[in-house]
Amino acid sequence: MRRAAEGGLRWALGRRRLTWREVVVAGVLLAALGALVFAPHVRSGGFQTDDWSTAAVYRFAPAPRYENAARFQRAILGGRPLLARAQPLPHAVFGGRFGWHLALAVALGVLASLAAFGALRLAGLPPLHALGAAGLALVFPWSDATRLWPIAGLNNLAPLAAAGGLALALRGLRCTGRRAVAWHGGALALYAVALGFYEAVAGIALCFGLLYVAQAGWRAAWPRWLADIAVVVPIVLWAQSVSSDVRPAPGTQSIRRDLGPFASDALEVAARSLSPFGPPAAVPGALALLAAAMWFVRRRRGDRDPDGELRRWAVAAGLSALATVAAWAPFVGSGLLPGFGGINNRGNIVAAFTLGALAVSLAGLGATAALGTRRPLLTGGVAALAIAVLGAGYAYRVRSDIIRWDRATTLQAEVLDVVGRTVPRPKPGSMLYVAGYPPMVDPGVSVFSVPWDLDGAVKLRYGDPTLRALPIAAGVVFDCAPAGVVPRVSSLPDGLYGSGYGVAQGARYGDAVLVDAARGRATVVRDPAGCRRATARLPLAPLIGDGRFLGS
What we know:
It is a single chain. By secondary structure, this protein is α/β, with parallel strands linked by helices. It has helices at residues 2-13, 20-44, 50-60, 65-77, 81-86, 88-94, 98-122, 127-138, 145-148, 150-153, 157-172, 177-197, 202-206, 208-216, 218-242, 252-274, 283-300, 309-328, 351-371, 376-422, 451-462, 528-537; strands at residues 431-435, 440-442, 445-446, 468-471, 476-480, 484-489, 507-508, 512-516, 521-525. The model is unreliable at 4-13 (pLDDT under 50). The protein folds into 2 domains: 19-48 and 97-374, no CATH class; 409-537, no CATH class. A hairpin with a 4-residue loop joins strand 8 (512-516) and strand 9 (521-525).
């Protein structure tokens, strides 16, 4: 048993070339990790926000249904044409079966991590460390929306394609002539595909050239790096130009406003990624001081790092840190801060991979500095233990998030059940204003909190695309105008819940239905006086509740 363990560790620490057998073994292990961590959510989770509207768009799109649904998504997504075509596909294949949508999100996360494993192996990391970085990225809790949220799961196609392109580019560095051109041409094609899914990979793609230089030197790297820039930059500029109406690029003012909070959040997330169980503030400094002290002691003893192991790990950590900055750069000024939770941690989709590589590099650096290079099995075992502890901390945090996401799914079902019972046969064209429940169970974890999620869910619940619905909570007021009801926002933060309330969400008298989900009552508003009476009685829950209906 001991010899087998030592043999396995030697293989895992070896610097052999990447083989298909390695890829298969890594794929099986990553799939097992994904199933172990995310299976409860696949069984009990459901849709969030945009999932409901996308499902309704596909369900009621005219023939040809898929093409029209994709065209609708393209109008929303602008410069993400491949993502626009991908979003209706799960609804065409799985319909309303939540578990299949969630399993697809996890599977795409596994594939993206597997592609990252291949790229890291080709970059020179031993199998154990490359697998550790890929596994940490898969269960990274500060980007778990990309595995817990079906529509965000499709965003994994971007890092999947980008990592695949990097693997081809690194493979091409070992070739010359036409073969080198062919390998890098494939890499450029995959970079373009990645940007067509999500331009968030642009920053990291522009930094791949640093890895080319580290692997093959400046002379071989610069033409390839220049080709990367020539492909990535025009695509990003085009995406920004075609998305300007629906998603304007951050301006100088918004970047300046967000830069300080963004940097503070980024440092906090980076620190927590190295200390998921304990206080994060002192961890990076403590690791750096420990590594420096151990390195100094070993040099005083005459160990000059003859194999260059410390230098390699230091370079890997430095490149990972630079890559993390590049991964976050596209989000500066977007309003998505790295420390946001729920669906809003999707901004860390690329940083999850770079921070995983950083954690592994620091583990390798610390273990080598402390134990030296003369006992590789012990050094590798200590690094593996540190990586496993980090992974356990990540998984624990993800499972805590799953509890909140699944509670939101349970509340969604309860809200729709109450609406169905209190308004069994709504008149076509009706507008249902639903109150009495908390729109969110946690920041970024929605029950029904934005105009388009409850609207899509109600359309699907009744099978009637003419119906409309709107969530109502504290901070929303009604104008009982002569012609009809108009909801407005009085005090909610813009963009969190209150965007999209106004004349367009109003309804004529006779079409407006106020639903009190807490008491299970519904009132059809027929005139201004009735509007004032009914809205005065409507219970308004806080935006973020404790996971229960009002009065439950």
